[in-house]
Amino acid sequence: MFFLVKSVIFAFQILLQMKINPKTKIIASIGPGTSSEDMLEDLMMRGVNVFRINLSHDTHENHRQVIRRIHALDKKHRAHVAILADLQGPKLRIGEVENDHIILEDNSEVVITTRKCTGSATMLYISYQDFPKDARAGEAVLIDDGKIKLEVIESDGIENVRTRVIHGGEVSSRKGVNLPNTRISLPSLTEKDIEDACFAIEEGVHWIGLSFVRTAQDLKPLRMLIHSSNRPIYIMAKIEKPEAIANIDDIILDADGIMVARGDLGVEIPFDQVPVVQKRIVKKCLINAKPCVIATQMLESMITHFRPTRAEANDVANAVMDGADAVMLSGETAIGRFPKEAVDAMHSIALYTENHDFPYERMWAEPNKNSITYLRDSICYNAVYMAAQTNVKAIIVFTNSGYTARKVASYRPHAKIHVFTNNENLIHKMSILWGAKAFFYSDFSNIDETITESIRRLKAEGEIESGDIVMHVGSTPITKKGSANMVRLSRA
Predict the structure, then answer these.
(1) 112 — alpha (psi -120 to 50), left (phi > 0) or beta?
(2) Beta-carbon neighbour count of residue 200 at 10 Å?
(3) Which domains does the chain have, with CATH numbers?
(4) I need a surface site. Which of 156, 282, 336, 355 has the fewest CB within 10 A?
(5) Arithmetic mean of pLDDT over the chain
């Protein structure tokens, strides 16, 4: 009986591995209910491409155990999943309040102070010590994801800010604070973030998420920290502030990827603007060939329910149709009751959407002739155009830096994208890239032999069949890096 059960479980895992995965990648946040080896393995088999470690919570030791479990499972299954370590950033909070909750009445006055105290209906402590210096009359103070709204009356510039309650209600201890109109002077990389980033670097994560980015300059301290460690880790800039939207073009250029973090963003800007802002950012990322993640509240009802609402299904489908590289589960898998079902729901929505009315071959404006990457860009642009004309089943990209793969993927071709690289550090990072599946291949000495071997390997893995039209994109000579100049069509 025992062996029969083991056989059934093994067969089920094989079926899960064989199921068709969407080209839009799935990110799952890990929490108490999903940190065990069995659960991580189950989520991996169900199609999770990236595991998110939220460094705002828990201890380094507990995170270390989870990261090492993921590394071990990834090696076992050769899944090439990525790990995204998410920094807390300068998150603002109120302090403890009386009896752990108080009521703020509409039109009452509340003093927000930087002096430690137990909060009451007339005074609240805030962790942001420079708030009295930065606050201006008329600016909004939002508490608990915008459920409570106050307005600044005046500040003494030292430690106290008088506010009026515009929309009151119940407030509990340690709730988050958003200042959508205030130009805060805190750095994006706090002391805690530096400690957490050093830990994440040491544990071999593949991406680090930088919270509350406002300008491209905010990326530099983290970039320097990573560079000094000599570890090839990518930076995901989280867009959560109005300033970030104003500076989005520069941020996209400097970051390795962008996350539209709609939780704080939806509080910092008017909620009616979020859908359009999301679509514009995704399009800008596509044009610049940078991965873009849509995050927060995608299937939030599944924290407590086994299936999503129709509105949530529409939200995920719209993010997929926009062309996002990845969609992310937050509380659904970190603290939710139905993490497996949430991953399955995300998987099925994305897959159905891609198979029905998804706009493939998005040929944006032709490559800029004045760009230093013009020749490479032109190769990728025309490769995707030709792939659509000839019904190519697979576009096989040879790359060392990942640029050619990102550029090909940015046009969202209908053909599968297979990335062959001799850069081991690139393999896992490709797990966040739309439609891409990466393979390590070390011998790039001969172009013809490399092409033949790539076709043989993809046939062996069931990715293509004999007679399929395939396309290769790379450089000749093949050992020359950073200069894609070849497109080749052939039959498998």
Answers:
(1) beta
(2) 28
(3) 20-89+188-354 (3.20.20.60), 92-178 (2.40.33.10), 374-491 (3.40.1380.20)
(4) 355
(5) 93
